From TrEMBL:
It is an enzyme of class 1 (oxidoreductase). GO terms for biological process: thiamine biosynthetic process; thiamine diphosphate biosynthetic process. It comes from Vreelandella salicampi. SUPFAM superfamilies: FAD-linked reductases, C-terminal domain, FAD/NAD(P)-binding domain. Keywords: Oxidoreductase, Thiamine biosynthesis. This is Glycine oxidase ThiO. GO terms for cellular component: cytoplasm. NCBIfam families: thiamin_ThiO. Pathway: Cofactor biosynthesis; thiamine diphosphate biosynthesis.
Amino acid sequence: MSDFLIIGGGVIGMMTALQLADAGQRVTLVERGECGQEASWAGGGIVSPLYPWRYATPISQLSRWSEGAYPTLSLRLWEETGIDPEYRQKGLLYLNVDDEAKALAWARTMGKPLKRVDSDFVAEKEPQAAPSERALWMPTLGSIRNPRLAQALKARLSAMPEVTLREGREVQRFIRQGSTITGVETAQGPLHGERVIVCGGAWVAGLLATLEVALPVRPIKGQMIAFQTPPGLVSRVILKDGRYVIPRADGLVLAGSTLEDIGFDKTTDAEALALLKQSAEAIVPALAGYPVAHHWAGLRPGSPDGTPFIGAVPGWERLYVNAGHFRNGLVLAPASTHLLVDQLLGREALIDPVPYRLEGRLA
Protein backbone atom coordinates (compact mmCIF):
# COMPACT_ATOMS: atom_id res chain seq x y z
CA MET A 1 0.00 0.00 0.00
CA SER A 2 1.24 3.48 -0.87
CA ASP A 3 1.54 6.23 1.68
CA PHE A 4 -0.51 8.46 -0.63
CA LEU A 5 -2.95 7.75 -3.44
CA ILE A 6 -3.46 10.75 -5.76
CA ILE A 7 -6.46 10.97 -8.10
CA GLY A 8 -5.76 13.10 -11.17
CA GLY A 9 -2.65 13.38 -13.31
CA GLY A 10 -2.63 17.06 -14.26
CA VAL A 11 0.03 19.47 -13.07
CA ILE A 12 -1.59 19.64 -9.61
CA GLY A 13 -1.56 15.87 -9.17
CA MET A 14 1.90 15.41 -10.67
CA MET A 15 3.51 18.23 -8.67
CA THR A 16 1.93 16.81 -5.52
CA ALA A 17 3.40 13.40 -6.34
CA LEU A 18 6.81 14.92 -7.05
CA GLN A 19 6.96 16.78 -3.75
CA LEU A 20 5.80 13.78 -1.74
CA ALA A 21 8.30 11.51 -3.49
CA ASP A 22 11.07 14.05 -2.87
CA ALA A 23 10.16 13.72 0.83
CA GLY A 24 10.58 9.93 0.67
CA GLN A 25 6.88 9.04 0.55
CA ARG A 26 5.49 6.17 -1.55
CA VAL A 27 2.95 7.53 -4.01
CA THR A 28 0.46 6.02 -6.45
CA LEU A 29 -1.03 8.41 -9.00
CA VAL A 30 -4.16 7.29 -10.85
CA GLU A 31 -5.35 9.09 -14.00
CA ARG A 32 -8.48 8.40 -16.07
CA GLY A 33 -6.67 9.13 -19.35
CA GLU A 34 -3.06 10.18 -19.88
CA CYS A 35 -1.22 12.41 -17.45
CA GLY A 36 -1.18 16.08 -18.40
CA GLN A 37 -3.64 15.81 -21.29
CA GLU A 38 -6.61 17.81 -19.97
CA ALA A 39 -6.56 21.42 -18.66
CA SER A 40 -2.81 21.22 -18.00
CA TRP A 41 -2.22 20.70 -21.72
CA ALA A 42 -4.91 23.08 -22.98
CA GLY A 43 -3.87 26.26 -21.15
CA GLY A 44 -1.53 28.98 -22.29
CA GLY A 45 1.22 28.82 -19.70
CA ILE A 46 1.31 32.41 -18.41
CA VAL A 47 2.88 32.25 -14.95
CA SER A 48 0.53 34.88 -13.52
CA PRO A 49 -3.19 35.55 -13.28
CA LEU A 50 -4.13 37.63 -16.32
CA TYR A 51 -4.74 40.80 -14.31
CA PRO A 52 -3.37 39.90 -10.86
CA TRP A 53 -4.60 43.06 -9.13
CA ARG A 54 -8.21 42.00 -9.79
CA TYR A 55 -7.92 38.82 -7.71
CA ALA A 56 -8.45 38.12 -4.03
CA THR A 57 -5.48 38.16 -1.68
CA PRO A 58 -5.36 34.34 -1.26
CA ILE A 59 -4.82 33.95 -5.01
CA SER A 60 -2.13 36.65 -5.06
CA GLN A 61 -0.29 34.92 -2.22
CA LEU A 62 -0.17 31.63 -4.08
CA SER A 63 0.73 33.18 -7.42
CA ARG A 64 3.58 35.25 -5.97
CA TRP A 65 5.19 32.15 -4.44
CA SER A 66 4.64 30.05 -7.58
CA GLU A 67 6.12 32.70 -9.85
CA GLY A 68 9.40 32.45 -7.96
CA ALA A 69 9.36 28.65 -8.04
CA TYR A 70 8.99 28.11 -11.78
CA PRO A 71 12.52 29.01 -12.95
CA THR A 72 14.07 26.49 -10.56
CA LEU A 73 11.47 23.81 -11.28
CA SER A 74 11.94 24.22 -15.03
CA LEU A 75 15.71 23.92 -14.82
CA ARG A 76 15.44 20.92 -12.53
CA LEU A 77 13.12 19.03 -14.85
CA TRP A 78 15.23 19.87 -17.90
CA GLU A 79 18.33 18.53 -16.15
CA GLU A 80 16.62 15.38 -14.86
CA THR A 81 14.60 14.45 -17.95
CA GLY A 82 16.16 16.18 -20.96
CA ILE A 83 12.78 17.79 -21.69
CA ASP A 84 12.89 21.59 -21.72
CA PRO A 85 9.66 23.10 -20.31
CA GLU A 86 10.69 26.36 -22.03
CA TYR A 87 10.33 28.75 -19.15
CA ARG A 88 10.71 32.25 -20.67
CA GLN A 89 10.98 35.33 -18.45
CA LYS A 90 10.48 38.03 -21.05
CA GLY A 91 8.07 40.24 -19.14
CA LEU A 92 4.46 41.07 -19.87
CA LEU A 93 2.86 44.05 -21.64
CA TYR A 94 -0.66 45.14 -20.68
CA LEU A 95 -2.36 47.26 -23.35
CA ASN A 96 -5.47 49.45 -22.82
CA VAL A 97 -5.59 49.04 -19.03
CA ASP A 98 -8.68 50.78 -17.63
CA ASP A 99 -7.92 50.32 -13.91
CA GLU A 100 -4.33 51.52 -14.03
CA ALA A 101 -4.41 53.21 -10.63
CA LYS A 102 -5.61 50.01 -8.96
CA ALA A 103 -2.90 48.03 -10.75
CA LEU A 104 -0.11 50.36 -9.66
CA ALA A 105 -1.37 50.46 -6.07
CA TRP A 106 -1.46 46.64 -6.01
CA ALA A 107 2.09 46.48 -7.37
CA ARG A 108 3.36 48.81 -4.65
CA THR A 109 1.69 46.68 -1.97
CA MET A 110 3.06 43.44 -3.41
CA GLY A 111 6.50 44.82 -4.22
CA LYS A 112 6.09 44.15 -7.94
CA PRO A 113 7.99 46.15 -10.60
CA LEU A 114 4.95 47.32 -12.57
CA LYS A 115 5.17 50.67 -14.35
CA ARG A 116 3.25 52.87 -16.77
CA VAL A 117 4.75 53.01 -20.29
CA ASP A 118 3.95 54.88 -23.49
CA SER A 119 3.54 53.83 -27.09
CA ASP A 120 7.24 54.36 -27.84
CA PHE A 121 8.17 51.89 -25.11
CA VAL A 122 5.66 49.34 -26.44
CA ALA A 123 7.02 49.75 -29.97
CA GLU A 124 10.57 49.23 -28.73
CA LYS A 125 9.71 46.08 -26.78
CA GLU A 126 7.26 44.62 -29.31
CA PRO A 127 7.48 46.29 -32.73
CA GLN A 128 4.51 44.26 -34.03
CA ALA A 129 2.18 45.12 -31.14
CA ALA A 130 -0.73 47.50 -31.64
CA PRO A 131 -0.02 51.05 -30.41
CA SER A 132 -1.25 51.83 -26.89
CA GLU A 133 -1.06 54.99 -24.81
CA ARG A 134 -2.43 53.20 -21.71
CA ALA A 135 0.07 50.40 -21.27
CA LEU A 136 1.72 48.78 -18.27
CA TRP A 137 4.92 46.77 -18.16
CA MET A 138 5.91 44.03 -15.69
CA PRO A 139 9.41 42.77 -16.53
CA THR A 140 9.52 39.84 -14.08
CA LEU A 141 6.63 37.79 -15.42
CA GLY A 142 7.21 34.73 -17.53
CA SER A 143 5.54 31.87 -19.31
CA ILE A 144 6.12 28.15 -19.60
CA ARG A 145 5.28 25.71 -22.38
CA ASN A 146 2.71 23.76 -20.41
CA PRO A 147 2.50 20.61 -22.60
CA ARG A 148 6.25 20.18 -22.23
CA LEU A 149 6.06 20.90 -18.51
CA ALA A 150 3.54 18.06 -18.22
CA GLN A 151 5.76 15.77 -20.31
CA ALA A 152 8.74 16.54 -18.10
CA LEU A 153 6.79 15.97 -14.88
CA LYS A 154 5.52 12.62 -16.14
CA ALA A 155 8.99 11.56 -17.25
CA ARG A 156 10.47 12.47 -13.88
CA LEU A 157 7.77 10.66 -11.93
CA SER A 158 8.14 7.58 -14.14
CA ALA A 159 11.82 7.41 -13.19
CA MET A 160 11.26 7.71 -9.44
CA PRO A 161 11.09 4.41 -7.52
CA GLU A 162 8.78 5.98 -4.94
CA VAL A 163 6.09 6.69 -7.58
CA THR A 164 3.70 4.33 -9.36
CA LEU A 165 1.71 5.75 -12.29
CA ARG A 166 -1.62 4.17 -13.17
CA GLU A 167 -2.97 5.75 -16.36
CA GLY A 168 -6.15 4.77 -18.18
CA ARG A 169 -7.92 3.97 -14.90
CA GLU A 170 -11.07 5.91 -14.23
CA VAL A 171 -12.07 6.03 -10.58
CA GLN A 172 -15.54 4.59 -10.09
CA ARG A 173 -15.97 5.07 -6.36
CA PHE A 174 -14.15 5.47 -3.08
CA ILE A 175 -13.42 2.52 -0.84
CA ARG A 176 -14.38 3.32 2.72
CA GLN A 177 -14.42 1.80 6.14
CA GLY A 178 -16.95 3.78 8.09
CA SER A 179 -15.92 7.41 7.66
CA THR A 180 -12.36 6.55 6.64
CA ILE A 181 -11.34 6.52 2.97
CA THR A 182 -8.86 3.72 2.25
CA GLY A 183 -8.66 3.78 -1.54
CA VAL A 184 -10.59 3.80 -4.79
CA GLU A 185 -12.22 1.25 -7.04
CA THR A 186 -11.41 1.26 -10.77
CA ALA A 187 -12.52 -0.98 -13.62
CA GLN A 188 -9.10 -2.64 -13.40
CA GLY A 189 -9.41 -3.24 -9.67
CA PRO A 190 -8.86 -1.43 -6.36
CA LEU A 191 -6.04 0.93 -5.45
CA HIS A 192 -5.23 1.72 -1.85
CA GLY A 193 -3.37 4.43 0.04
CA GLU A 194 -2.89 5.45 3.64
CA ARG A 195 -4.23 8.85 2.56
CA VAL A 196 -6.12 9.84 -0.58
CA ILE A 197 -5.78 13.19 -2.39
CA VAL A 198 -8.30 14.28 -5.03
CA CYS A 199 -6.76 16.49 -7.75
CA GLY A 200 -9.34 15.75 -10.43
CA GLY A 201 -9.73 19.21 -11.96
CA ALA A 202 -13.13 19.83 -13.54
CA TRP A 203 -14.23 16.29 -12.61
CA VAL A 204 -13.62 16.61 -8.87
CA ALA A 205 -17.18 17.62 -7.91
CA GLY A 206 -18.73 14.56 -9.51
CA LEU A 207 -16.35 12.26 -7.70
CA LEU A 208 -16.88 13.87 -4.31
CA ALA A 209 -20.64 13.85 -4.84
CA THR A 210 -20.49 10.06 -4.38
CA LEU A 211 -19.58 10.87 -0.76
CA GLU A 212 -22.37 13.48 -0.52
CA VAL A 213 -19.77 16.27 -0.49
CA ALA A 214 -20.97 19.24 -2.59
CA LEU A 215 -17.81 20.95 -3.82
CA PRO A 216 -18.77 24.00 -5.95
CA VAL A 217 -16.48 23.24 -8.90
CA ARG A 218 -17.79 23.01 -12.46
CA PRO A 219 -16.24 22.81 -15.92
CA ILE A 220 -15.69 26.11 -17.75
CA LYS A 221 -14.64 25.61 -21.36
CA GLY A 222 -11.88 27.68 -22.87
CA GLN A 223 -11.12 27.69 -26.59
CA MET A 224 -7.71 28.76 -27.90
CA ILE A 225 -5.94 29.04 -31.23
CA ALA A 226 -2.31 29.11 -32.33
CA PHE A 227 -0.71 30.85 -35.31
CA GLN A 228 2.43 29.50 -36.95
CA THR A 229 4.77 32.43 -37.45
CA PRO A 230 8.50 32.93 -37.93
CA PRO A 231 10.38 32.75 -34.63
CA GLY A 232 10.71 36.19 -33.09
CA LEU A 233 7.62 37.83 -34.59
CA VAL A 234 6.37 38.15 -30.99
CA SER A 235 8.80 37.91 -28.07
CA ARG A 236 6.68 38.25 -24.92
CA VAL A 237 3.18 37.85 -23.57
CA ILE A 238 0.84 40.72 -24.46
CA LEU A 239 -2.62 41.30 -22.94
CA LYS A 240 -5.32 43.56 -24.28
CA ASP A 241 -9.01 43.82 -23.32
CA GLY A 242 -8.99 40.45 -21.55
CA ARG A 243 -7.38 38.51 -24.41
CA TYR A 244 -3.73 37.61 -24.87
CA VAL A 245 -1.03 36.27 -27.16
CA ILE A 246 1.75 33.99 -25.92
CA PRO A 247 4.83 33.29 -28.07
CA ARG A 248 6.81 30.07 -28.15
CA ALA A 249 10.46 29.78 -29.12
CA ASP A 250 9.65 27.98 -32.39
CA GLY A 251 7.35 30.75 -33.67
CA LEU A 252 4.04 29.32 -32.50
CA VAL A 253 1.89 32.14 -31.10
CA LEU A 254 -1.04 31.13 -28.88
CA ALA A 255 -4.12 33.32 -28.56
CA GLY A 256 -6.94 32.97 -26.07
CA SER A 257 -9.31 32.43 -24.67
CA THR A 258 -13.06 31.97 -24.31
CA LEU A 259 -15.06 31.43 -21.12
CA GLU A 260 -18.02 29.09 -21.68
CA ASP A 261 -20.18 27.59 -18.95
CA ILE A 262 -21.70 24.71 -20.96
CA GLY A 263 -20.70 21.56 -19.10
CA PHE A 264 -18.32 18.83 -20.20
CA ASP A 265 -18.09 19.93 -23.83
CA LYS A 266 -14.68 20.28 -25.50
CA THR A 267 -15.87 20.87 -29.05
CA THR A 268 -14.57 23.88 -30.98
CA ASP A 269 -16.63 26.16 -33.22
CA ALA A 270 -16.17 28.64 -36.03
CA GLU A 271 -17.60 31.58 -34.09
CA ALA A 272 -15.00 31.25 -31.33
CA LEU A 273 -12.27 30.82 -33.93
CA ALA A 274 -13.27 34.07 -35.62
CA LEU A 275 -13.45 35.98 -32.32
CA LEU A 276 -10.08 34.69 -31.12
CA LYS A 277 -8.46 35.48 -34.46
CA GLN A 278 -9.94 38.98 -34.41
CA SER A 279 -8.76 39.73 -30.87
CA ALA A 280 -5.28 38.32 -31.55
CA GLU A 281 -4.92 40.49 -34.64
CA ALA A 282 -6.02 43.50 -32.61
CA ILE A 283 -3.07 42.82 -30.29
CA VAL A 284 -0.55 41.98 -33.03
CA PRO A 285 -1.87 43.12 -36.44
CA ALA A 286 0.84 41.17 -38.29
CA LEU A 287 -0.80 37.90 -37.21
CA ALA A 288 -3.38 38.49 -39.97
CA GLY A 289 -0.72 37.37 -42.41
CA TYR A 290 -0.17 33.95 -40.85
CA PRO A 291 -2.30 30.80 -40.72
CA VAL A 292 -4.13 29.45 -37.70
CA ALA A 293 -2.34 26.14 -37.24
CA HIS A 294 -4.31 24.80 -34.26
CA HIS A 295 -7.68 25.29 -32.55
CA TRP A 296 -8.59 23.42 -29.37
CA ALA A 297 -10.57 23.56 -26.13
CA GLY A 298 -10.06 22.52 -22.53
CA LEU A 299 -12.10 22.46 -19.33
CA ARG A 300 -11.11 24.64 -16.40
CA PRO A 301 -12.18 23.66 -12.86
CA GLY A 302 -14.33 26.72 -12.17
CA SER A 303 -14.90 27.76 -8.56
CA PRO A 304 -16.96 30.65 -7.09
CA ASP A 305 -14.15 33.23 -6.82
CA GLY A 306 -11.18 31.33 -8.23
CA THR A 307 -9.74 30.50 -4.82
CA PRO A 308 -8.82 26.80 -4.81
CA PHE A 309 -10.00 24.26 -2.25
CA ILE A 310 -6.95 22.88 -0.45
CA GLY A 311 -7.10 20.61 2.57
CA ALA A 312 -8.98 17.88 4.36
CA VAL A 313 -12.53 16.96 3.32
CA PRO A 314 -14.93 17.55 6.25
CA GLY A 315 -16.67 14.43 7.49
CA TRP A 316 -14.17 11.98 6.00
CA GLU A 317 -10.91 10.73 7.44
CA ARG A 318 -7.71 10.55 5.35
CA LEU A 319 -9.29 12.32 2.36
CA TYR A 320 -7.91 15.58 0.95
CA VAL A 321 -8.59 17.88 -2.00
CA ASN A 322 -6.56 20.26 -4.14
CA ALA A 323 -8.91 21.60 -6.82
CA GLY A 324 -10.93 24.56 -8.09
CA HIS A 325 -8.10 26.72 -9.44
CA PHE A 326 -10.30 27.97 -12.31
CA ARG A 327 -8.10 29.86 -14.83
CA ASN A 328 -4.96 29.61 -12.69
CA GLY A 329 -4.18 25.92 -12.21
CA LEU A 330 -0.77 26.15 -13.80
CA VAL A 331 -0.13 29.56 -12.22
CA LEU A 332 -0.84 28.38 -8.69
CA ALA A 333 0.33 24.77 -8.93
CA PRO A 334 3.77 24.99 -7.22
CA ALA A 335 2.42 26.92 -4.22
CA SER A 336 -0.91 25.13 -3.82
CA THR A 337 0.72 21.69 -3.94
CA HIS A 338 3.47 22.78 -1.55
CA LEU A 339 0.83 24.13 0.83
CA LEU A 340 -1.03 20.82 0.91
CA VAL A 341 2.12 18.71 1.20
CA ASP A 342 3.22 20.85 4.15
CA GLN A 343 -0.05 19.98 5.89
CA LEU A 344 0.17 16.29 5.00
CA LEU A 345 3.73 15.95 6.32
CA GLY A 346 3.27 18.17 9.37
CA ARG A 347 5.63 20.88 8.17
CA GLU A 348 5.25 24.59 8.80
CA ALA A 349 3.01 25.98 6.05
CA LEU A 350 4.52 28.45 3.61
CA ILE A 351 1.40 30.64 3.86
CA ASP A 352 -1.73 30.64 6.01
CA PRO A 353 -3.82 27.60 4.94
CA VAL A 354 -7.11 28.89 6.37
CA PRO A 355 -8.49 30.74 3.29
CA TYR A 356 -8.24 27.56 1.21
CA ARG A 357 -9.89 25.12 3.61
CA LEU A 358 -13.15 23.44 2.64
CA GLU A 359 -14.93 24.25 5.93
CA GLY A 360 -17.56 26.88 5.33
CA ARG A 361 -17.02 26.95 1.57
CA LEU A 362 -18.96 23.88 0.43
CA ALA A 363 -22.15 24.34 -1.58
